[in-house]
Amino acid sequence: MLDAGRGGATSDVRPPHDAAKHVRFACVSDTHTQEGLLQVPPADLIIHAGDALFKNVDADNNPSVEHLSAWLGKQDARKPLFVGGNPEGP
Fold first, then answer.
1. Is it the case that residue 44 has pLDDT exceeding 50?
2. What is the pTM of this model?
């Protein structure tokens, strides 16, 4: 988790990671083709909770989530999970 401290500065306040006792989640949503602007902390599971596309297309004007899939694969996470929102529907 990133915490905004005094003056708006952010600091990493994540606890030490003991994989036997803790699972780290990184959750994002409503990126609307702008996921590349995010700085996502390391996680065991990254969840994108929908609305990745904008007007039913990705940043390359393709009606698919392949661009998002490639971005998720580049994140420092063991597993990615994508749950489609209304722009990703048929």
1. yes
2. 0.73
Task: Return the exposure string of 48-78: e unless at least 16 CB atoms fall within 10 Å of the residue's CB, then b.
Answer: bebbbbeeeebbeeeeebebbeebbeebebe
Q: How far apart are the first and last CA of the chain?
A: 34
How far is residue 81's CA from residue 32's CA, in Å, rounded to a whole number?
17
CA distances from 4 to 12, 15, 63, 67 (A): 9, 16, 36, 30
Long-range contacts of 62-70 (CB under 8 A, 24+ apart): 67/33, 68/31, 68/35
- Distance between CA atoms of residues 65 and 57, nearest Å: 8
By the 8 A CB rule, do 64 and 43 touch? no
How does pLDDT run across 11-38, given as a tens digit for each residue?
555 556 676 778 889 999 999 999 999 9
